[in-house]
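pasting input
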Amino acid sequence: MPFTPKAAVKEVQDLSFLVARAFLGFFRRPFYFRDILEQMDKIGVGSVVVVMLTGFFTGSVLTLQSASSLSAFGAKGLTGRLVAVSMVRELGPVLAALMLAGRVGSGIASELGSMIVTEQINAMRALGTDPIKKLVVPRVIATTTMLPLLTVIANTIGLMGGLFVAVYVLGINGTVYLSSAWDGLTYTDMLGGLLKPLVFGASVAIVGCHCGLRTHGGTQGVGQSTTQSVVAASVLILFFNLILTRVIWPPS
Amino acid sequence: MSEAVLEMKDVVKSYGDNTVLNGVSFQVRRGETKIIIGGSGSGKSTLLKLAMGLERPDEGQILIEGTDITKLRERDLAQVRIKIGMIFQESALFDSMTVRDNVAYQLNEIGTDEEEVEQRVRQNLGFVGLEDAIDKFPSELSGGMKRRVAIARALAGEPDIMFYDEPTAGLDPITSRKINQLIITLRDLKGVTAVFVTHRMRDAFTLASQYAENSNGAVEFHHEGQLLCIANTRFLMLRDGKVIFEGPDELIRRSDDEYIRRFLA
């Protein structure tokens, strides 16, 4: 499809309709608790390892980089603080969300896309089920609730990785590192760091579902939807991150 | 044989500039089997999707048991759709579920208790002869088996009317015959109303000329021969989005319309 202003407006309109229908679906029976739990397991538990790895390496590399910059000012002792604040405010939420866009968003888009192509969605409608309630709502709920938890895991492991590098590579005292990390964080940081993944999680799921459900043109279409979902979700995450950062931590 | 289960009145449907259905009207009465034939792209599958409420017509009315479904909201359409059992061209089984869960799908949705679900699943799988496949996944089944599971799944909800969208497409002649015999059994022994879409005249004439009989618990199939006439099965032929023939098989065989003669040959 060529990119025209008309197509873009249509896209936003379709996406808004999906959000509205998914939102209404939260409140109307039937509720699919089993599907929600299943998706939470698949999306949440299934992503723990990849999120842990992301957190660990990010925390470690951040410590390495910031320690060398800070030591130029003789402030090597503040490394923990810098790592903690960067992880909790920015890197934890954003990187966990980007990993989820790659792992979960693409999965949702390809699964729903295949179901469209093989007429399983139509079969579902024919059997009297609303696919929005049965497929979209559980995925949105699961992703939105699981991403904040995954972010907490990523942050924790990131700080651990940082601690490991600080102590064994840079020779910083572990207690100094941890106490400066603890001092650096405020409640706003923690709440803001949890609000971000809530928004990101919803974006990943909604974009994945939207791209999947509008798939057309056979197997090739499924591939296209999958790619589009990852690109769109990633860009949306970065965009919302900018907005949310500006709102939560206004420049003084 | 009086009340119309499905009725279309002047239905028009187009995709972009392509008019697929251009003023189609017909009725399917209770107990009747309507065989819809036509070349590829004549709007046969679209017709079923419209009748199911999966898509909406541009003009005209579609009545299911007297309710006009063209004006219903998606939420209310679900109530209409559960009256209809649909067999999709490629079976459209849920490939993340076992055969059992596929067949049980609709029953689980409406919250039937487990024991009854299990019993009805076994009963319907027994009817299509696939009780052994109950724990398999669709990917482990052959095309013909998938089609039979799809029939069992549609039957589980005890629909008032069945839609078959080219149920024998891509199957070998022997498997096709099995599927056709299932459909004949449903028609003659259970009185199921049906719309059967196909472009294979062989299948269409099998349906129009064979009948099933229950003899001491076993189902037997007979040819109507010269004396009998199967009255509950009628043809409807589509061409370029219009109905060009409607009536029993005896008449379509004798039609002198050039297009129909070429189609039958």
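fyi The interface with chain B takes residues 30, 118-120, 122-130 of chain A (CB under 8 Å).
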